[in-house]
């Protein structure tokens, strides 16, 4: 059988050449020479020719997203997805009374953040009016509440609603969540295309398993630091605080004065450091917030935006660089140096008392547990107001606590500052595509015993399920709000993919998740986090599995999540798109072609002035700092323009919808007018003119 091209010249014909007449294609399996059959490959192509449903391609198919958790993770996700996923309906459920998660729950006396206020905020929503250098918990809570309100999302937050169970419905390609209204106790089902879990890694308070405490023998009051009763009177009462993490130390320091005396039960000691950003601004007993911003400073933040950015940049760089050195590597001279520096400062605060220094120095490497600033704690140790007790608590009786040395110490109130249950895997059932509860795969009792996420954001077998600030989600050097922003932005991209093309679900491939997880243990192999201590950041004592952290720096995570690796995903097509992945190509038109306004149709045009601010290579070589500033100005300029464009679009959108409403009103009025025979000056038409 001849080739289809055999009677054509081997070389390209030149102008004026006489070309041979092509032979008829040879017939395969002749039955009737007058009806030549096409080659099977071509026949297959012809048979597969496809016409999608003749609809306009709309990128913004309506989608519903449910977020569980209204902490920093959930609020950031809701805010960013509301901006990044058009035509989305977002509902956020939280069992608490207020937005803010950690900062709504932990209202014990003196609850405060040890990261500077101007860092512990969203990059795109700076608050220029923070009161102190280290913010009080209440101020953080109010900040997130304000952000939610500013983005018009307050009504999307359904507080005092507890999610009990989530189930993936493969036929519907939706998540069904069982939710309990904590006011009415009623349970209802809400469904969504996408489900984001941001339940908090440390949101479920854990009480100590001490005989006599759990079984109600103790006649006084028992409270947990994260479940603080608003009516707790503790002036002049005998207080026992169990737990020496950051919460325990803050509670002790803040109850000391009103109570007069506190017994502090310390099972494991905690490294006490001045500040997490080097010794930049130290919080002290008299100034636990480190520094109170003056009106003048706040005014300068408002009036000099450039200077404010520089101020923030300095803080952010301190945060990034503080984590980059060898200080987090076991045996590294930087870690040793850090330890010496911390000991020196503690000794100073102890007025040189070596005996006390020995008593409170932890026996594990600096960085294994999160250090705490504990302003005022060290200073109180040597006073009669504070009893530092390291003997094991063996039981609690009706009136107090008994330690292993058989000492009974009376107490009116026991404060359990004993941390939280493991929150790296959902605390309620999450049933995936194969009917398996994620807790059975990732829970402490599962065969592996820890979560094996895909990039700290997804789980194979759980389509359209995302997590924010759960396992492997904290990259060294970036604040918690920034980590949430990175994840939410990434999730937005995944949702947009499904929303805009022929898909209804996506999930990471198991092999992709496996290969990501195979990197983790080796990355943390000699890091201080795997020192000989117990911590909520890992599972197990000492060399356990690190669950908190991303295997890399903050910028490493930013870069890794900037663009989704589509090759790592399995997709589920939408009904009707089974035969052709380009079903969404529709009739060849987009909604822009049909309804786009001037600006949207020419979205690719940019104002030249921004790019003219770009640093030249001469600038770069001459003055690095200047080029950085120019670059920052350019970015700022572009962002401003993007923002203006967004506003313009919004105005146009509103104008469109108003016009539609007015047209309709006018039509109705006309109908009304014609039916009554009258001709009225339409208010709607006048309003249209105004627009
Ligand atoms: C006392 C304290 C102080 C801290 N200080 C610092 C600090 O100084 N610096 C720092 O970087 N980090 C600090 N942290 C860590 C802090 O938890 C994180 O920085 C951050 O606030 C976590 O936000 P999140 O949204 O992930 O979780 P959370 O704030 O815990 O929010 C999770 C939310 O999910 C809700 N939820 C859980 N399950 C359900 C359910 N089934 N149904 C409905 N809602 C549910 C919870 O009610 C909660 O509101 C601190 C933590 C604590 C406890
Ligand atoms: N502004 C701040 O700096 C700030 C304030 C509060 C919290 N935080 C953050 O929140 C995280 C959680 O802090 P947290 O203090 O609430 O919890 P945590 O760090 O987990 O500390 C819990 C403490 O309770 C002790 N404990 C638990 N069970 C006990 C028992 N049965 N008997 C005796 N002691 C027991 C633990 O000892 P073992 O170590 O021996 O288990 C530990 O000292 C911190 O890591 C920190 O990141 C920060």
UniProtKB/TrEMBL annotation:
Pfam families noted in UniProt: NAD_binding_8
Region (Disordered): 662-691
Biased composition (Low complexity): 672-691
Family under the similarity heading: Belongs to the FAD-binding monooxygenase family.
Protein name per UniProt: L-ornithine N(5)-oxygenase
Native species: Sporothrix curviconia
